[in-house]
Amino acid sequence: MSLLDFALGRRQETERVSPQTLLDSLDEAVLAIDEEERILCCNARWQKLAGPDEAKSGPLSERLHPSDLPLWREALSQLRRGKRPAPLWLRLPVGHELHWCELRAQPLYPDKPWPVSLTLCDITPQVRKEQVRDASHRSLNQLVSNLPVMLYRARNNRNWSMEFVSDGCFELTGYSADALVNQPRLSYGALIHPEDAGPVWDQVQEALHRHAPFELHYRILHADGTIRQVSEKGRGLYSSTGFVLGVEGVIFSLQHPVPEACG
Question: Where are the domains of the chain?
Fold first, then answer.
């Protein structure tokens, strides 16, 4: 049973709790709309987000950023076809502010497509943090674009799956940034010399366990077939509870290329 099923009175509980009180206790905005996008009911978080005087006036599409309307219309189209759309990131202009929200939509009742329940989670702080971080990476990338160094942010796995690399990766590895970032067929871990891959992993894990920075020296296999000696300085990225989210740092070449030995 969905939360709005309960809120709209489809099931009676032995211990009665006000449905509106329950909905208003949520941090997420919750509302129900009909096929014309009219808002049928909403909780206090939506009223605070949209403004108490505007919470139920007009169709929902009038509240969204114009650039996000195609995404919203596609979600509505999927709902009309009986499908449940994937979560959307949409912008909600409120006064002079712009709120980013993750929106999830599903039919309120299992046997008919309308009305639809919507849950909106305000992710504005998260998006702003990402925008600042991306801007910082772009600035750093411009500063080091002409240097044989690679700035990176990677997941903590044996493939060292890259989430970001600077343009210097091409001179260092022979591969473009697009070839290395989030690509299942080519990972930075596959470029590390097989004899060095294990020690590199072990040293990084030991440093992460101590929440300490790390400095490594190892060999990589360049796209041109040569072996390059590189040095890496990095650190872990941690959640507020100490969980390892990934690693970031810089990698640079130590010497001229050495031809790879033939079998």
Answer: 3-122, 130-259
Q: 227-246 pLDDT, tens per residue?
A: 999 999 999 998 888 889 89
Asked if 154 and 160 touch (Cβ cutoff 8 Å), the reply is yes
Q: Cβ(60)–Cβ(66) under 8 Å? A: no
Residue by residue, DSSP assigns 207-226 as HHHTT--EEEEEEEE-TTSE
> Taking the alpha carbons of 96, 101, 105, 108 in that order, is the dihedral positive or negative?
negative
Topology (CATH) of 130-259: Beta-Lactamase (3.30.450)
Q: So what CATH class is 3-122?
A: alpha beta
pLDDT score recorded for residue 235:
95
Strands (E), the chain: 29-33, 39-42, 88-94, 97-109, 112-122, 149-154, 162-165, 214-221, 226-238, 244-253, 258-259
Check residue 95 and give its pLDDT: 72
